[in-house]
Design a protein that fits this description.
By secondary structure, the chain is α/β, with parallel strands linked by helices. About 50% of the residues lie in helices and about 10% in strands. The strands form three sheets. Strands 2-5-8-1-9 form a five-stranded parallel beta sheet, sandwiched between helices. A two-stranded antiparallel sheet has the order 3-4. The chain has a two-stranded antiparallel ribbon with strand order 6-7. Bound molecules: adenosine-5'-diphosphate (ADP) and magnesium ion (MG).
């Protein structure tokens, strides 16, 4: 325990002892038991409130916690096909579920370089291009393809379908036709696409997603990446708050309201609370979004 945490625990213990002494003294003086109970309950509630505020001010996010599906991702990254090729992995899950972080974690774990790019609108963002001196301007994909590494094609499903078609041969043939010639795929070039959809086009929540070509999607093994509530608690470091966020999220789902409350609300909410921002303001800044008064009240009632 740190010095500050130890002092705090000691102060709580002393307050509890004081309360017990006071309760005994009231009993000895023959005070009304109902009155004693009410006084003690009130004092205990106040102590609990102080402890809660103290906990909010000192969140301790747990380090090194992995997503519940991380073991499956790592297993896939270590598997090789009958020709020695790794599977291409499509991570699909809601915003803030930890897809980008998991790809970076995998690179660290496997001691491989990490390369990534976001959605693309033309094939040169993947394959690169030759500059005026004939030198290849080499994008992330090329680096990972030639020398190995984790290549994350982040927000892949927001790409133009025509742009990613150029990728198809590279994904399944073991070689890719770059502007400066054909390059063989490195045996440790692990390709991960992160997406909010299964590649079948825009949904109510993810309106910027494109329907991708079936021949492109077929080249991936798909791994669902949902919210991991234990990871969410760990990264917020404030379980009381992240539990409240989770209750609000499930109330929103139960009520059939379209509104996303991602684990970032748990994380940033905990940060804001720790900085002393009052909880109702934190809710307004990171949870409520554009919900109107009636919807918000319904959500709070449902979550209570
Ligand atoms: N294993 C983890 N440990 C700690 N924090 C994490 C972990 N995974 C995700 N996060 C945090 O959760 C938030 C959302 O993660 P991110 O990887 O950006 O999600 P996504 O790519 O699915 O939208 C980020 O703030 C990130 O730092
Ligand atoms: Mg991401």
């Amino acid at each position: 325990m740190t010095g500050a945490a130890h002092d705090w625990a000691e102060r709580v213990r002393q307050s509890q002892q004081r309360l017990e002494r006071r309760e005994r003294a009231m009993v000895d003086r023959g005070r009304d038991p109902g009155l004693i109970r009410r006084i003690v309950d009130k004092a205990e509630a106040k102590l609990e409130q102080c402890q809660r505020v103290h906990r909010d001010r000192h969140p301790r996010p747990a380090a090194g916690v992995s997503h519940k599906s991380y073991a499956s991702l790592k297993q896939l990254a270590n598997i090789r096909g009958f020709q020695g090729e790794p599977p291409n992995i499509w991570l699909v899950g809601p915003v803030g579920s930890g897809k980008t972080s998991a790809a970076a974690q995998l690179a660290r774990d496997l001691a491989l370089p990490f390369h990534f790019n976001g959605a693309i609108d033309n094939e040169y963002k993947l394959k690169g291009f030759l500059d005026a001196q004939g030198r290849l301007i080499s994008p992330s994909f090329r680096k990972a393809y030639e020398h190995g590494g984790i290549y994350l094609f982040d927000e892949c499903d927001a790409s133009m379908p025509g742009a990613v078609l150029a990728f198809n041969a590279a994904l399944s043939n073991g070689a890719c036709d770059f502007p400066d010639g054909e390059i063989q795929r490195h045996p440790d070039c692990i390709i991960i696409a992160a997406a909010n959809t299964w590649g079948h086009g825009a949904t109510h929540d993810y309106v910027g997603r494109m329907k991708q070509d079936a021949a492109f999607l077929d080249r991936f093994v798909q791994l669902a990446w949902d919210y991991d509530e234990e990871l969410e608690h760990a990264m917020s470091g404030n379980r009381r708050w992240s539990a409240r966020v989770q209750a609000i999220r499930s109330a929103i789902a139960d009520l059939g309201i379209h509104h996303i409350v991602s684990p970032r609300a748990s994380y940033w909410g905990a940060v804001l609370l720790a900085a002393g921002v009052p909880e109702d303001q934190v809710l307004a800044m990171k949870v409520r979004g554009a919900l109107d008064d009636k919807q918000w009240q319904q959500v709070l009632d449902q979550a209570a």
